[in-house]
Each structure stands twice: as C-alpha cells, then as structure tokens.
Amino acid sequence: MEEKISCDGGHEFKLLLxxxxxxxxxxxxVVFDEAYDRIPHSDSSLEHSISEIWDxxxxxxxxxxxxxxxxxxxxxxxxxxxxxxxxxVSLQLGLTDYRTFVGTNLSPIWERYLVPSEDDCxxxxxxxxxxxxxxxxxxxxxxxxVLQRSNKVGEFPGYFVFPGGHPEPQEVGIISHxxxxxxxxxxxxxNKVSQEMFDSIVREVxxxxxxxxxxxxxxxxxxxxRRVMNVRPTAFFFIKCNLQSDEIxxxxxxxxxxxxxxxxxxxxxxxxxNMASKMPGCHRGGFALYKLMVKxxxxx
Length: 300
Fold this sequence. Notes:
The chain is of the alpha+beta class. It has helices at about 45-60, 100-105, 120-125, 185-210, 245-250, 270-275, 280-300, and strands at about 5, 15-25, 30, 70-80, 90-95, 130-140, 145-150, 160, 165, 220-225, 230-240, 260-265.
C-alpha cells in the first residue's frame, strides 16, 4: 500500500494509503485512543528541545496558539473477501498539540526523532505527526482549485496547495483522553471523530475558497500522503463543486481565511502537472492520489 516518490527540490512524498475508488463516510471509521499518542523520546535533551523551540517561536510571533490536534497513528484497510462488500478503512488517531508539532516535526533536528524501521508508525512514534487534510475540488467546468500560499505563513510560503487544514478535536468536544473510557462513550466519540474527518474538510474549503457549503458534494476519501521531509501526514478528499470556476473566483475575494493565500487558480490537469513542482510533498502526494482516482475511473 505504501509508495515512495522522489520529487525535485528534495520534497519527496510517500503514499501511506491509496483509495482510488473513493470512500464515502460510511466506509471510513476512526479508533480514537491514547495508544496512538506520541511516545516521548528516551533522549531527555531532545524532549527538552521541544519547549525551547516553542518558546523561541512564541517570542517571534505572539499570535501562535497551542491547540490540540488529532495524531495519525496508522490504519486498518479491509477490502473484504466478498466482491459485493465495500472496502472499509479504520483510521487510528491519538491526540497531540501544535507545540509538540513545532518542536518535533518542524524542528531543525526532526530526523533525530525517527526510529529506523520499515513500519511507518514505528518510524514516527516519537513525532507529533498531526493529521492534516486537503481537498481536490473540481468545478462544474472541470477545473481543479489550487491556492498560492501567503508569504506570511509558517510552512512553505508562496507554494501551491490544495485547500485544507486539520480536523479539530475541539469541534467534537475533545481536549484530552479523559472521560472516554467506557465502551459506549468510545463508540460515540469514535463516530463523532469520524464525522469530523468529513465535516472539517468541507469547513476548510468554505473558509479558504469562499464557496458555500451547499455548492459542494459530500467528500470522498481518497487516501493519505506523507511528506518525507518532516514526516507530515495529510488525508485527502475529492469534492465536486456545482459552481463554475469564474463564479468561485468572485467568491474567493471575500473568503473567511483568504489571508492565508494570495491567489486562487482554477486549472486543468496538465496545468496542475506543471504547478506540482512547487507544491509541498504532502500536497504532491494528494495530486498523485487524485491521478490514481482519475485513472481508475477511465479504466472502468
């Protein structure tokens, strides 16, 4: 299931999970458990550096906020033995925060947190690895929406990206693992987190592009890519928008989170190929997942 691709500029990506048929919300579930939290590193100096890096970043930018995030801890993929049975993915998520992400994944010494292993989850057991999300949005005139990031953002300023961000624990009332030990509580929270995976990507598209939620189709999950640099995982979705690209351009000017980007592009597949050379690795992986989905549709 894993695939590693080399890209120019050292921004490689790895496809951790590919679902080219696209999975609906009923085919994606979540197991939220502290077993998938980050394991502290045995090197105390490395652990101490997390606070040092965060404190230095806060001094540079007092607007930084240490919010909680879902931590990617792996998945189970059940394709089923019966041809009539739909495939199902169970995502394994723990809890982390932005401070630990800055101090591990975004640390100048991030590679020291990695464990030599072919198993991705073991390799990244000491990193924060919050699960991001991204959406490949197709307009009614068959264009794909791409944003150019502001030069003021912390990661990859000026790069091309798909709209996205993170599913948010606070949206489903999670601030810690406490209170979810009972079996019925676990089921309830797992269902809520699974729904947040899909709700959050719609929210991100609405906030970053300005398209109204009722113009968007229900997202389908197409896989998870990981940027090799910083081992940054991102879940990708495909969404259709019933508006034309010129209509969306007008809406973008008043998008809620328009400050995060400087321009919105509506491009063809061939144009997107050219732009991919200036995409962060995880988003290049999202483009690769989209191409696999398109290829499957054409072969059917």
